[in-house]
Amino acid sequence: MTNQSRREFLRQLGTITAFVVAGRAGRSVFAAGEASPFEVLVVGDSLVWGQGLEEKDKFYSLTANWLRDGAFNNRREVSVTVNAHSGSTLKFHKMEAEKYRRAGCDETFYHKPEVNVGFPSVWKQIEVAADRYKTAGISGGADLIMLTGGITDISVAKVLDPFGDNRKLVPQIEKYLRDDMFDVIEHAATNNPNALIAVVGYFPILSPKTPGSRLFNNWLESMSFPRALKPIANNGVIRPIFFSRLRKKGISRSRIWFDQSNRCLQQAVDKLNAAYDKPRAVFIKSPITEDTCLETPGSLLFRMNKKGVVEDPLYRERAADCGRTLRELKKTTGIDYPVRLCEIAAVGHPNPAGSQAYAEAIKTTLTPILSKVDP
Predict the structure, then answer these.
(1) Global pTM value
(2) Among 2, 154, 259, 272, which residue's Cβ finds the most Cβ atoms within 10 Å?
(3) What residues have CB less than 8 Å from 5, skipping those under 6 apart?
(4) Is 93 helix (H, G, I), strand (E, B) or coil?
(5) Given 3.40.50.2000, 3.40.50.2300, 1.25.40.10, 3.40.50.1110, which CATH number is that of 3-370?
């Protein structure tokens, strides 16, 4: 075990121990044994939304099933509210917000959740849920909040940009994954005074095990490169000349992203917990590694199939929705999102096996906390 992994293990163990002690000392954040439903709130971006997955395979659904059938042994109802959607940023970015408001649009309006637009932001998703809970007479709000966010504020393209300056990437990660994330989870804690907030982490995007041919193919698809010309560009002679160095730089930046996003999310969680007399949040590290990331032989993420069709079951429905929604959005507000990136957005998101791995990671973290609470 390396020094870094040892420190990480001890920190996580300390957080879980603190939750157990808090549960023994007074009312647990899980408040089991009550007649009212256990309220689960899902806010964030495409990761927690479960881009491309059917409802039964999303890791929030799997977690809710475990809570109902396992943790509570069918003695308490579990109610799930999902405000997450693809593309959501942590906060409403200024330029988009100004265009949106000039067009007379309201940030609380939801497009279809598979369409990756930045709004409603995670901040606004929390407020929308708080209003709904208040209207329903649920004074304490959610009992468990599952949350992801931060990568869309930077964008995957900029994270992997082979021409980007690595020294500038870390400050960007710190701004969004630490500073803005802290603001957002503090906002969630304030609006949901009884909730445990599970901040779910991201995974490596690329690795040396990602085949260059498949990676280059995905990049060409994202650029809407003419499909008839792809065999000319993506072959064993031309590809190494133009792409090998770029691939290595992308892998290097993916590693920076994975290490620094984990560090910053943990720091945001630690800062929130330090502000309360009992722990309010926990960080869930991604179970997806460089062995199982994008297009690797054992990938736990959706792949790109032939003719630019993503293997997820929602591809064709999403592609139709992306075209209609994004063209109308550009017409009415001037906000321009690439339609093709929306169509193929499920590439690199957890497939059913990857989602199951996330659900198991969440269960592993929450079980010691719940085991000290009488259902």
Answers:
(1) 0.88
(2) 272
(3) none
(4) coil
(5) 3.40.50.1110
